[in-house]
Amino acid sequence: MKHETRKATRHVNQNEGLIFEKSSAGKAAWKLPPLDVPEVDPSALLGAAARGDLGNMPEVSEIEIIRHFTRLSTWNYAIDLGMYPLGSCTMKYNPRVNEAVARVEGIANGHPYQPEKISQGALQILKTLSECLIEITGMDAITLQPAAGAHGEMTGLLIVRAYHHSQGRPRKKVLIPDSAHGTNPATAAMVDYAVENLKSDSRGMVDITALEAQMSEDVAALMLTNPNTLGVFEQEIHKIADILHAKGGLLYMDGANMNALVGKVRPGDFGVDVMHLNLHKTFSTPHGGGGPGSGPVAIKKKLEPFLPAPVLMTKSDGTLGFEYNRPQSVGRVRAFYGNFGMFVRALAYIQANGPDGLRQTTEDAVLNANYIRKGLEGTYDLPYSTPTMHEVVFSDKVQAKKGVRTMDIAKRLIDYGFHPYTTAFPLIVPGALMIEPTESESKEEMDLFIEAMKSIAEEVQEDPQTVLDAPHSTRVSRLDETAAARKPVLRWKPAV
Amino acid sequence: MRYLPKSPADREAMLKAIGLCSVDELFAPIPAEYRLSRDLKIPRQMAESEIVDYFRQRSRENGEGYTSFLGAGAYSHYRPVIIDSLISRGEFLTAYTPYQAEISQGTLQSIFEFQTMICELTGMEVANASMYDGSTAAAEAVMMAVRLTSRRSVVVARSLHPEYREVLATYATHQGMPLSVASFGDDGRLNLTEFEKLITPETACVLIQSPNFFGSIEDVAAIAEIVHRHDAMLVVSIAEAVSLGIVEPPRQADVIAMEAQSFGVPLGFGGPYCGVIATREKFVRQMPGRLVGQTVDRQGKRGFVLTLATREQHIRREKATSNICTNQALVALMVNIFMTVYGKVGLKELAKQNLAKTAYAAGTFSEHGKVLFAASPRFNEFVVQTKEDPYAINSRLLGHKVIGGFPLKKFYPELGNAALWCCTELTTRSAIDTAVGLVAESERSVRSPKEADVEEVTR
CA nearest B249 in A: which residue? Predict the structure, then answer.
């Protein structure tokens, strides 16, 4: 390392094996109360269905479990430790009051089938969150049922399909820009639409001429991420919407990048017909190592009959309840009502911000991305000079000449105390470095990030091998992913 | 705004560095006619204390302080305290999907342990890192069988959770996959003779649940024998994970689609929960969802990575096995910790207590009313048939702070006045006695449905 890194210092962390390697017969971390009903003989009650022993399940004490998972936790990077600049992932601060209110007794322990009469608190949370999200997106109605972004995409496209079906013209394909997230085409395939690629123009936006040429009455919808994965706002969005609508198509917006828009502009106002939100991105619910998420789908009025059942309603007596009788509904996409715990957290986030806080949040997120762009422009290649919103995409073009690729730079960033940015995505930028700082980063943290990225760029010129061998400071060095996939070991087995 | 780490001076300095005068210039790319020039009409900014008050108030309106006999796919089990202590660590809570393995070994190793324990409990060879929930796991497992067999139609048991059936119908309709429904017999289990007639050469798989929606344990071995004779696949859904402590797992299945909520996940009004798919090694490349595998680093040290990603949407796009990206990782960690706490002996003892409480409750109920499907073995749920409408009974029970069984009329009108009751280790004998007493009292003084205040409880 050329300079002493200011962000991080190496320190000892604990070794820890697999939990099975700590197990021995007779240790226990549980205690049940005495049984207050007569004991039963399982084999008499269950017959052949009675189970023998539980194989290699562990037997360990409570302190060992605490140490086990605490030690594992220290091997993770986290937002709580520092900047997590993954593009389009919106790794923002996860407020702790969200966690506290999600654990309040009646909220954490409500049963989904308890009578509506005694579920008014939960239903009120659904209603208030729905109203807030409808106002934020400028749409007319919403379902909170989808469990994550991709699930929301599926729900949205099912609604699109049901709408076209009701118009007597089912349509066959969905247009997807080449800059789109992989879930978009995967989703289209799941609902049996053919995927047609739509190319981007030299500014990184939808190529309007191409769209006009490809648009036909066979196109059900365009799935558009706006701002797109280059962090670029589709400036001709009105034209895009008009082209689609003129031929009866619908505009679907992937709301993954909504953090650039909240309080500043509303998709419903610029022609979007259906969109999903990611509560685990824009609305601060924690990523938790990969989930849970929540992917509400907001729609325009004409699509309302097709929403998944049940739909929240206010009954004649003024209380809240669910409407199940929805003959045109696409059906149910998940048991019960969605990831309710995430609704609680998202609402708490909206309340903590209010209209002024949400607007300031968006402004800071866009300011941060532009500050990083300015700081690294000239050091890293900027393939598209179009104005940046909430994220900025560089390429490894300069560094590649020394044989160093985006993944190598990303791995070296770990040694500087940062989580890497998103590598090799979007696909339209070869060797992409996709950086989204979010509003949660202070100027100091971003200065450290810029300094680290510049220092790595110097290393690439002077000592590329150091970058190619990175990371040097982690518990494990680069792992053999090829071997992992060739001969998969997907579970622990006792030594024979 | 208290979450934003910048002073006005910082913002000024940053704008200056970028070469701008005002933040509005950053939003110039958005056509002016679409820019919002007013405040959003949402609640004003609230203090933390106000937010806590708001949710405490909602909590009081949400069934606080009731004794519940509801199960039906969402189960109330004790959650050891250390689950929340550990999942609240920021390094688990605020980490992303572990794509950067070198700084995600904590999450990766814990998922590897999760996959191992799910395999041990289900008798399968591989398990994924999680799916959204039991219902979507079942639908995705069916689609996996469709890919593996290159056949398109599906037979689904009527004793599968009705909402799981609805979800499957949503997924299947748009894939053009015909569904046929196999009924249950007098013992509440799949009617084997009738069911075999529904299997055709186009049947990709048969989807059943065990213990099924009524709590009855299906004869999985016999069902598997029939299904496999027709070269179709058997997919088994498990909604009550604690049953695995004492009930033989459906080892004869080709795919198991689980809901692991029972393992330490709060009821939370229906979510987030934790779906899982487990299967045979030979089917792993058609499995949806993330998988963690063991490997070595450059020094030969053991480590873990996300693997077999060529199945997934970020690599394969429209050719992926599923569009799933975000899963239920933190909830899977709760499940993992729960399984570790109870372990080999505790899980069995826990399941035994569920079995004992339910045997006692079903026995007590049968002294005063009719418990259906008594001929088949059950785990922790049972169906009680009454003279009176269960909605009316439940309405009266609510007055005593008791939430009665789940009325089945909406999904199973053929069962008449029936409700699905559930007991777990948390259900006390006195609560059972009270509930049985109240139901018996109701039954003795049955009023006509017109008199009964049915509309008061609509679900």
Answer: A51
Distance CA A427, CA A179 (A): 6
CA angle B134, B138, B143 (to 5 degrees): 150
Q: Which of A35, A60, A72 to mutate to test the interface with B (most CBs of B within 10 A)?
A: A72
Compute the mean pLDDT over every residue in chain A, rounded to the nearest whole number: 96
pLDDT surpasses 90 at A261: yes
3-class state of residue A55 by DSSP: coil
Q: How far apart are CA A275 and CA A268, in angstroms?
A: 9
Q: B67-76+343-458 is classed in which CATH architecture?
A: Alpha-Beta Complex (3.90)
- For residue range A433-456, what is the model confidence (pLDDT) as tens digits? 999 999 999 999 999 999 999 999
Q: Could you give the residue ranges of the DSSP H alpha helices within B301-328?
A: 313-316
Backbone angles phi, psi at A197, to 5 degrees: -75, 140
**C-alpha Rg value of chain B to the nearest Å:** 25
Predicted model pTM = 0.97
CATH node for A97-350? 3.40.640.10
Q: Which residues contact A12 (CB under 8 A, 6 or more apart)?
A: none
Give how far A456 is from chain B: nearest CA, Å: 18
B445-457 pLDDT per residue, tens: 775 444 444 444 4
Q: Which of A261-265, B240-244, B331-335, B365-369 has the lowest mean pLDDT?
A: B365-369
- CATH classification number, A362-486, choose in 3.40.50.970, 3.40.50.10860, 3.90.226.10, 3.90.1150.10: 3.90.1150.10
Predicted local distance difference test score (pLDDT) of residue A402: 97
